[in-house]
Amino acid sequence: LALYTTSESDAAMIARDITRLGYTPRIYWRSRHPRRRAEISIRVNSIALHALFESLGSPIGKKEWPAEPMPWLFLQPAWLRAQFLSAFCSAEMMTPRLLRNRVVSLQLKQAGQNRHAIDFVARVFQSLAYDVSVAPSGPPRGERQDYVLHILGGDAAQVRFFSEIGFCYAAEKQQRAAESASIFWQRAAIVRKRTAARDKAHALGAAGMRRKEVVTTITQEFAVSPYFAIHALYSGRGEPRCTDRQLAQRTTGELCWVPVE
Q1: What predicted TM-score, i.e. pTM, was given to this entire model?
Q2: Rounded CA gap, 22 and 122, in Å?
């Protein structure tokens, strides 16, 4: 049995978990291109462990997945299905990233002669009430085709994945997920404050307070601009939003710091 990574901390964690299961892992390094990190291989020479993975439904050899792999998984509680996804996504999902302070939709790619693998992963996500899509990616390569799964639902759905499932391995993905969540939560806090300012401006205006007094009250209490306070007095405008301002990531490694409200 062989597992591969380029992170020494991930390799150490995987080796530790294998040891906890009662098996003896061996770690090997292989140098590649000077600009690429060395490949780390964690190997276990155990017929028993190989048989265990096979009995659980792990594809053997060329990774040809059956049409309905691992039916036992869908009979397990939600936390165990989430744990399975966490490990699978640690290996197969893209590294989280931000684009203009928005969380890019997470993607997971699988290739094969059929859709069995990607459809299986989609069903596990759907069993946990995630909305996902699956589509071909690029032209076929002979009999093989790449497929990509997207988590739908915007920033909130991506951060929900970070919070509920996350990456139990892949330290770099853990850190990028925390950074993305930090920006998302800061944006959400700004929108909540601006919504509260708008609602109070409406209420004060409806109660008969003069516009100048409303503007002064709203700008002082909510630290918004006078222009926002003036516009907030008028109905028919869209929901408050957070512009693409500079926001600092409040993280330490995989930890995300948020204020207590």
Answers
A1: 0.86
A2: 32
Q: Are 254 and 90 in contact (CB under 8 A)?
A: no
Q: Could you tell me the CA-to-CA distances from 13 to 5, 145, 171 in Å, in that order?
A: 11, 33, 10
- CA angle, residues 129, 130, 135, in degrees to nearest 5: 135
| Residue pointed to by tokens 């307070």 | 209
Question: 3-class SS at 260?
Answer: coil
Per residue in 114-173, pLDDT (tens digit) is: 899 999 999 999 999 999 999 999 998 888 899 999 999 999 999 999 999 999 999 999
Encode 154-182: b = buried (16+ Cβ within 10 Å), e = exposed.
ebebbbbbbeebbbbbbbebbbbbbbbbb
**Structure tokens, 51:** 């048989």
One-letter amino acid for residue 162 of the chain: F
* Distance (Å, whole) CA 90 – CA 167: 5
* Residue ranges of E strands in the chain: 2-5, 26-30, 39-43, 98-99, 102-103, 107-112, 132-141, 144-151, 251-252, 255-256
**What is the rounded CA–CA span in Å between residue 203 and residue 212?**
14
List, in sequence order, the alpha helices (H) in 93-170: 116-127, 154-164
CA distance 132 to 126: 7
The pLDDT of 58-86, averaged and rounded, is: 91
